[in-house]
Amino acid sequence: MNEEIPILPLVVGALVLSYFGFEVNRQRHKLRTIFNVFDREEAELADLLEKWVAAGDLKPYVVPDPI
């Protein structure tokens, strides 16, 4: 039996999956920009700063009251 692999459906499927991945990444970037969500590196830095504040090594910034 000499069956051929259907190339066109595989190419179309790959294009659809690629577009889906691109669109998900684009929407995620858009939402992070809108809501200013931390990514992994920024979250680790924020956790470290919070630990320093809790340990007393760093004082949190307090906005002075306007007179």
Care to describe what's here?
The protein has 67 residues and is mainly alpha-helical. The chain has one domain (7-55). Helix content is 67%, strand content 0%. It contains two helices and no strands. The chain has helices spanning 7-35, 40-55. The longest helix is centred in the first third of the chain and has 29 residues, at 7-35. The radius of gyration is 24 Å and the shape is elongated. It starts with 6 loop residues before the first helix and ends in a 12-residue tail after the last helix. The model has no long low-confidence stretch (mean pLDDT 87). Keywords: Membrane, Transmembrane, Transmembrane helix. The chain crosses the membrane at residues 6-22.
Summarize the structure.
The chain has 67 residues and is mainly alpha-helical. The chain has two helices and no strands.
User: What is the number of beta strands?
Assistant: 0
Strand content: under 5%
Percent range of helical residues: 55-70%
> N- to C-terminal separation?
89 Å
Task: Give me the secondary-structure category.
Answer: mainly alpha
Helices and strands, in order, run as HH
Q: How large is the count of helical segments?
A: 2
| Main sheet: strands, sense, barrel | none
Average pLDDT level = 87
* Gyration radius, rounded: 24 Å
Transmembrane segments: 6-22
Keywords: Membrane, Transmembrane, Transmembrane helix
Provide the fold topology:
Layout: H1 7-35, H2 40-55
